[in-house]
Amino acid sequence: MDVYEAVASRRAVRAFTEEPVPRAVLERVLAAAARSPSGGNLQPWQVCVLTGAPLAELKKRTGERAAAGDPGDERQYRMYPPEPRSPYRERRSAAAAQRFGALGIRREDAEARRAAVAANWRCFGAPCLLLCYIDRAMGAAQWADLGMYLQTVMLLLRAEGLHSCAQMAWSVYHRSVAEVVSPPEELILFAGVSIGFADPSAPFARIDRAPLAETVTFLGDAAGAGDA
Asked: Any stretches that span the bilayer, and where are they (predicted)?
């Protein structure tokens, strides 16, 4: 699988089979992902991979909190701007409509939407969860490195025939996660990534992306490169 195919086929999978992910594959992916861009070579990511009994325990703890309507722990970082302006507000709303629409969930069906969100803490059935932490002393540039690292991981997983779902949702119950994995105090949980083989029978929406003209501006010689 070439890079373009990996990028095109990567999506947030929210339905996995129970087929286990080989440890050797995970080690190969994470060793290669260490070559991700890193300003000053700080490599600010700290990763914990859960399978088997530890993952089952984590799913149990967070699942119980979600079922009880627990709103979560104090936030360690802000996921989204409090009031996103246009066009970000519309993009987020459209993505939610596409996702829930593919599942047959109506906008007014709050209970069904809550249940769909709660599936985050069951890893959508995935047998493997990667938790990505960052030292709280790091700044915005290192958080950007973290995003590049996780993108590299997810593309390499596609090259191995695997799928994934990046989930900031795990940070909502970061205290429950800490009870299972015992991270050092200086670390902040950024996100989890559920990993496994996609369930081909599950419905899903391929979320639209903005047209190139909305997000890219060409200046100088590059502006006419396509005319040759």
From this structure: none
Closest residue by Cα to residue 44 from 198, 118, 150 = 150
How far lies 43's CA from each of 16, 143, 187, 207, in Å?
Answer: 30, 10, 14, 31
d(CA 225, CA 228): 6
Tokens, residue 181: 């994995």
What DSSP string runs through 12-79? B---B-SPPPPHHHHHHHHHHHTTS--GGG---EEEEEE-HHHHHHHHHHHHHHHHTT---SPPSS-S
Closest-CA residue to 182 (of 66, 65, 50): 50
Q: 3-state DSSP helix/strand/coil percent for the chain, to nearest 5?
A: 50, 15, 35
pLDDT tens digits along 127-164: 999 999 999 999 999 999 999 999 999 999 999 999 99
Q: Using alpha carbons only, how large is the chain's radius of gyration in Å?
A: 19
Q: Are 50 and 131 in contact (CB under 8 A)?
A: yes
Q: Please identify which residue in the block is written with the tokens 């695997």.
A: 162
In three-state secondary structure terms, 134 is strand
Write down the pTM of the prediction.
Answer: 0.90
